[in-house]
Amino acid sequence: MELYQEILEGMIKQEIDLVNATSYKALKEIKTIIENDTLSDFECIEEIVCVFERLGSNGGNRHDFG
Questions:
Q1: How far apart are CA 41 and CA 64, in angstroms?
Q2: DSSP E strands: which ranges in the chain?
Q3: Relative to the CA of 29, which of 11, 20, 47, 54 has its CA 20 to 30 Å away?
């Protein structure tokens, strides 16, 4: 059982590292969007919602412009 546990712990660590890297990349992207003075507030929110969508999340009611 010890080997199985070691393998499982290694896999979980890899997944956590992937989530952390993905989260950091998304935060950097959102920061860049917020700092972009050429975007209107609406465009800024639209771009941020798109970041979440690329991560597999949805925009909920905030992205239902139709």
A1: 16
A2: none
A3: 11
